[in-house]
Design a protein that fits this description.
The protein is of the alpha+beta class. It is 33% helix and 35% strand. The protein has one domain. It is built from 2 helices and 5 strands; from the N terminus they run H-E-E-E-H-E-E.
Length: 97
């Protein structure tokens, strides 16, 4: 599990200029939902949280958190990692969902 999380950290760092979880500007948050072995996790601000049993459970929690932060003035979006391709796709964006 640690190896998978570390690999994700490296890939986010290369792809996004930041470590696991989120790319954050003054008013923009990105939540990453991804599978780690048999658990689903949420990444935000260089932290990984949760041991969710399903993608839907992790996504629902991420939406609740993103919506709450959006109400405080942050633009937020959630990206989910595709199991087949490994690419992240936007699953939710404040103001559009």
């Amino acid at each position: 599990m640690v190896g998978t999380v570390r690999a994700l950290a490296i890939s986010f760092k290369v792809a996004r200029g930041n470590a696991i979880g989120a790319v954050r500007s003054l008013a923009h948050l990105r939540y990453f939902v991804f599978e780690d072995q048999s658990d689903w996790k949420i990444g935000l601000d260089n932290q990984v949280v949760g041991n969710f049993l399903s993608e839907q459970a992790a996504l629902s929690t991420a939406i609740e958190r993103a919506f709450s932060n959006s109400m405080r003035g942050h633009k937020a979006e959630i990206l989910v990692r595709d199991k087949d391709t490994g690419a992240f796709k936007v699953a939710w964006r404040y103001g559009r969902n």
